[in-house]
């Protein structure tokens, strides 16, 4: 079992940046896939990015080149650096490990 707590969301203008953090309640060293998902109003939750224990990454096409996922196994943290944000990135962002989800953090991109 693992508890996940996201932070770092907020309101940002188009073109701006945000860094989301996900704090795990226990060591993530043995957890292979750590992922970020998002859910916009009226839409299904979708995978944004995933990182393996050894640092291999995969991204949704819509965020490639703009978002970067990283993890710090020593600190039990996962991050999502989001640059060049667009209005369509507005969503609640969730951290996921195994079948456990955090409570989400709201990201709103608007002028």
Structure description:
Helices cover 0% and strands 50% of the residues. The protein has no helices and 11 strands. The protein is mainly β and 111 residues long. Strands 2, 4, 5, 6, 9, 10 and 11 form a 7-stranded mixed β-sheet that branches. A 4-stranded antiparallel β-sheet has the order 1-3-8-7, with no helix packed on it. The mean pLDDT is 96.
Which short descriptors sum up this protein?
single chain, 111 residues, mainly beta, seven-stranded mixed sheet, four-stranded antiparallel sheet, 50% strand, globular
Write a brief caption for the model.
The chain is mainly beta and 111 residues long. 0% of the residues lie in helices and 50% in strands. The strands form 2 sheets. Strands 2, 4, 5, 6, 9, 10 and 11 form a 7-stranded mixed sheet that branches. The protein has a 4-stranded antiparallel sheet with strand order 1-3-8-7, with no helix packed on it.
Mind summarizing the main beta sheet?
A: 7 strands, mixed
Number of strands: 11
Strand content: over 45%
Radius of gyration: 13 Å
* Helix proportion range: under 10%
Mean pLDDT: 96
């Amino acid at each position: 079992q693992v508890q996940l707590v996201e932070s770092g969301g907020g309101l940002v203008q188009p073109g701006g940046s945000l860094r989301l953090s996900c704090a795990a309640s226990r060591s993530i060293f043995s957890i292979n896939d750590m992922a970020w998902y998002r859910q916009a109003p009226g839409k299904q939750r979708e995978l944004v990015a995933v990182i393996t224990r050894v640092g291999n990454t995969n991204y949704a096409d819509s965020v490639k080149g703009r978002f970067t996922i990283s993890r710090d196994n020593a600190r039990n943290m996962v991050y999502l650096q989001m640059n060049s944000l667009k209005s369509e990135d507005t969503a609640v962002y969730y951290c996921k490990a195994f079948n456990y989800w955090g409570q989400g953090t709201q990201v709103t991109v608007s002028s």
